[in-house]
Design a protein that fits this description.
Elements lengths: L4 H5 L9 H10 L3 E5 L4 E3 L7 E7 L2 E6 L5 E7 L4 E2 L14 E4 L3 E7 H5 L9 H26 L4 H16 L3 E3 L4 H8 L3 H13 L3 E4 L2 E4 L1
Antiparallel strand pairs: 1-8, 2-7, 3-6, 3-8, 4-5, 4-7, 9-11, 10-11
Helix pairs in contact: 4-5
């Protein structure tokens, strides 16, 4: 578990907390680490959870399959990002989506009751972690609004332009790499893969962009 402390230090949840203090707090916050192979479920729809979770290794997708097996990717989780926080409040209900490992991954679980309750040891930075947690949840809500912005577009081209433009701005470059392959991007934008691929080819012919797999360059 100690090998993940440098990663935790870079997370929003532990912003401003030193590595030695994080090491002390792991026991206080009931931290546990679980590993998952590519394709394994970290969390399943219908489960109830009592933990704040942070990805410390690998990559995850938040996704949902309908009755006929059609998949929608609601979000991608990178190392250092928190997830599941929307379901830990009392009466918040069961998980509405699955969380699946896209590659071999490791996830750290923190008991939410220990986070929001001041511990008997009175850790110096406990209150800072609670404050950071609030800011992290606010950031997650902002990302959700961004995705809703992409989804609100009417056509496949408009959705692609919205998403790719946002990624270019986020990464600060007209050339960037996205965290999805073609099928995953189609699932994320809720469009047909073939129609999306055709639209990308049209946009390339029109001189709007260049791409190679998950590498894009806006022109």
């Amino acid at each position: 578990m100690k090998k993940y402390i440098p990663i935790l230090k870079r997370t929003q949840m532990f912003a401003g907390v030193g590595e030695k203090d994080i090491a002390t707090m792991l026991s206080c916050l009931g931290a546990r680490v679980y590993t998952y192979k590519k394709g394994e479920y970290v969390l399943r729809q219908g489960e109830h959870i009592n933990d704040i979770t942070v990805l410390v290794e690998g990559s995850l997708h938040i996704q949902k399959d309908d009755y006929w097996g059609n998949r929608s990717i609601l979000g991608q989780i990178s190392v250092g990002e928190m997830f599941g926080e929307a379901y830990v409040a009392p009466e918040s209900g069961a998980l509405l989506n699955d969380v699946v490992a896209v590659e071999d991954s490791a996830v750290m679980f923190f008991d939410v009751r220990r986070i929001i309750t001041t511990c008997s040891n009175a850790c110096r930075f406990h209150s800072a972690v609670v404050q950071n947690l609030f800011f992290a949840i606010s950031e997650k809500n902002r990302k959700l609004v961004q995705k809703l912005g992409h989804m609100s577009k009417r056509s496949t081209r408009e959705k692609l332009i919205s998403y790719l433009s946002e990624e270019a701005k986020r990464q600060g470059s007209a050339a960037f790499v996205i965290p999805f392959n073609r099928q995953q991007l189609a699932d994320f934008l809720s469009v047909d893969r073939s129609a999306m691929s055709n639209e990308l080819c049209k946009m390339r012919k029109e001189g709007l962009l260049e791409f190679d797999r998950n590498k894009f360059r806006l022109l």
